[in-house]
């Protein structure tokens, strides 16, 4: 019997990569991609553990899961830092930022 590729194995890998890249967009996009990749990886892992001899491509799932976890952690840290910076400094307009820069020159 010929082995089939795990469903969404490549998609999980791509979403894991996008979760790391997306953490630069205020953390929200990276958070979404990481959560979706982790949910899909959980389903693919459950499918693989039932019949490992029927499927291939599990390395993509493992790699995508690791990347999604890294992207999730980076996104959460970035969101926490944004919340801290907004609570300490508030939202400033460009004119206010220019005044602060002029004070320190």
Based on the model shown, name its key terms.
mainly alpha, 105 residues, 75% helix, two-stranded parallel sheet, single chain
Beta-strand content: under 5%
Number-wise, the strands total: 2
- Overall 3D shape: rod-shaped
SSE order: EHHEHH
Q: Could you give the distance between the termini?
A: 73 Å
Mean pLDDT: 91
- Structural class by secondary-structure content: mainly alpha
Number of helices: 4
Spatial strand arrangement across the major sheet: 1-2
* Gyration radius over CA: 20 Å
Q: Report helical residue fraction.
A: over 70%
Largest sheet, described in full? 2 strands, parallel
Whole-number count of domains: 1
Poorly predicted runs of 5 or more residues:
none
Topology:
Layout: E1 4-5, H1 9-22, H2 28-50, E2 55-56, H3 58-89, H4 94-103
Helix pairs in contact: 1-2, 1-3, 2-3
Question: What do these coordinates show?
Answer:
This protein is mainly alpha-helical and 105 residues long. The chain has one domain. It has helices spanning 9-22, 28-50, 58-89, 94-103, and strands at residues 4-5, 55-56. The longest helix is centred in the last third of the chain and has 32 residues, at 58-89. It is rod-shaped.
